[in-house]
Design goal:
single chain; globular; Beta Polymerase, domain 2
Length: 102
């Protein structure tokens, strides 16, 4: 499995909601952004941990993982893929899906 497939499988298997994959064109930031929602801070943290665990197990590395302590918005930088895991409240507040799809 490639990196994106691993991330999506973890999110689906662990019942993340509203998974959105945005392919970026001509971006120096990343090739792909994945956005998902957890039903609680506990779930967002668990999703981030499972993604990190599965990526490392499959030979991939992370550049960073931010926001884990608060758990409301966790950002995982996996080099060419950036994953945002939000609680519902934070995702609605920031509206990142709309910003990135424009």
């Amino acid at each position: 499995m490639n990196k994106l497939e691993i991330i999506l499988k973890v999110l689906e298997d662990r019942l993340a909601e509203d998974i959105n994959v945005i392919n970026l064109k001509n971006s120096s930031i990343a090739d792909t952004i994945v956005i998902a929602t957890g039903t609680s801070v506990i779930q967002t943290r668990a999703l981030a941990d499972y993604i990190e665990e599965e990526l490392i197990k499959n030979g991939f590395s992370l550049i960073s993982k931010e926001g884990f302590r608060e758990g409301e918005w966790i950002l995982i930088d996996a080099n060419d893929i950036i994953v945002h895991i939000f609680t519902r409240k934070q995702r609605e507040f920031y509206g990142i899906d709309n910003l990135l799809s424009e």
